[in-house]
From TrEMBL:
It comes from Paractinoplanes atraurantiacus. InterPro entries: Galactokinase (IPR000705), Galactokinase_CS (IPR019741), GalKase_N (IPR019539), GHMP_kinase_C_dom (IPR013750), GHMP_kinase_C_sf (IPR036554), GHMP_kinase_N_dom (IPR006204), GHMP_knse_ATP-bd_CS (IPR006203), Mevalonate/galactokinase (IPR006206). Signal peptide: none annotated. This is Galactokinase. Pfam families: GalKase_gal_bdg, GHMP_kinases_C, GHMP_kinases_N. Its EC number is 2.7.1.6. GO terms for cellular component: cytosol. One of its GO terms (molecular function) is galactokinase activity. Belongs to the GHMP kinase family. GalK subfamily.
Length: 382
């Protein structure tokens, strides 16, 4: 309950009253399907138990003030345009702007934020913040915003207002996931299917390993990967790389004169297939068999998409050497977290193996914890 208490206390401190309500949205772990979302492909995230909480009350129309536990600064703004509010508050101003752009009369609000989603870890703390604020404003204003429409509004806030070129996966997971399920999302149609993901029943667990190598999305590398994929799709004459199958690769790759672009395409196409393979295995109850698929995905991110760093590669190798059934980096890359599919009860031995490997390399110690699939954004009732 501490994150809830933190949000309430931050609200009291800033506004001198009790909040009218509390809303929460989770971070996410992407089980498989990295960088496929902006290629109209498939992803399979699940929501973390860790959440961002928004304590919120109404304010006069056209007025918004936001504070948080991660800074002493409170920011007030009216209805703004992209670029007018910067820093962490831009994520909140962006949600207000995106809702207004979608034709809604956004209620004024006083907002205090607290989060237990690790920042900069690749677990989508930004989408958790956006989704908590969006859900609060929709409820507070009685806005008619269907659930399946909300992720694209939150994504627009991040893409256009904040300027981060992310796909639709993070916001979809934070808003649409269900407890005990992984979210199979078609990033072209936005259709979803809730896939059973009760690892405890299989004697398994997911260990998240935060490499503590900072993860940054608003940088040139993420944008460069996206641009390369879009250019390749144009050369190949398809709407997106999702329209190429693994069987097509031998024919289409020679048409790309640049070896780097060929490897980028190969990752996306094979990663889409890995998502489909993982979904099929989970539907059939063959949970243990997803391990090698996860590990193959990591090799593809490392060698073809080139988005891993030494810390995450070492974590994957150490986890597998300690007996993990599979392991891979999760998130956009260049730092962040690794997930390992392990036998239940093996979290400590796996953690110790990764810690030892980090110490041997002189890396900052990792942070490790087990996770289960949690629910998406929701109001918190007393």
């Amino acid at each position: 309950m501490s994150v809830i208490n933190d949000a309430v206390e931050a609200y009291r401190k800033q506004f001198g009253e009790e909040p009218a309500g509390l809303w929460a949205a989770p971070g996410r772990v992407n089980l498989i399907g990295e960088h496929t979302d902006y290629n109209d492909g498939f992803v399979l995230p699940f929501a973390l138990p860790q959440r961002t909480v928004a304590a919120v009350s109404p304010a006069p129309a056209g007025e918004w003030t936001v504070c948080s536990t991660f800074t002493d600064e409170a920011v007030s703004f009216g209805l703004t345009q992209p670029g007018e509010v910067t820093g962490w508050a831009a994520y909140v101003a962006g949600v207000v702007w995106a809702l207004a752009e979608d034709g809604h009369e956004v209620p004024g609000a006083r907002i205090a934020l607290a989060s237990e989603v690790p920042l900069g870890s690749g677990l989508s703390s930004s989408a958790a913040l956006e989704s908590a604020v969006l859900t609060a404003l929709v409820d507070l204003g009685g806005l008619e915003v269907p659930l399946d429409r909300r992720p694209s509004i939150a994504q627009r806030a991040e893409n256009v207002y904040v300027g981060a070129p992310t796909g639709i996966m993070d916001q979809s997971a934070s808003i649409r996931c269900q407890e005990g399920k992984a979210l199979f999302l078609d990033c072209r149609s936005f259709e979803v299917d809730q896939i059973p993901f009760d690892l405890a029943a299989e004697g398994l667990a997911i260990l998240v390993i935060n490499s503590n190598a900072p993860h940054q999305h608003v940088d040139g590398e993420y944008g460069a990967r996206r641009k390369s994929c879009e250019e390749a799709a144009a050369i190949l004459g398809v709407p997106a790389l999702r329209d190429i199958s693994v069987a097509d690769l031998d024919n289409v790759l020679p048409r790309l004169g640049d070896d780097v672009m060929r490897r980028r395409v190969r990752h996306i196409v094979t990663e889409d297939q890995r998502v489909l393979d993982t979904v099929a295995l989970l539907r059939e109850g063959r949970v243990r068999e997803i391990g090698p698929v996860l590990t193959a995905g990591h090799a593809s991110m490392r060698d073809d998409f080139e988005i891993t760093v030494d810390q995450v590669d070492v974590a994957v190798e150490a986890a597998i050497a300690a007996g993990a059934l599979g392991a891979r980096m999760t998130g956009g890359g260049f730092g962040g977290c690794v997930l390992a599919l392990i036998e239940a009860g093996k979290a400590q031995v796996t953690t110790e193996a990764v810690e030892a490997a980090y110490a041997q390399r002189g890396f900052k110690a990792p942070t490790c914890w087990t996770v289960t699939a949690g629910p998406g954004a929701t109001a918190i009732t007393a």
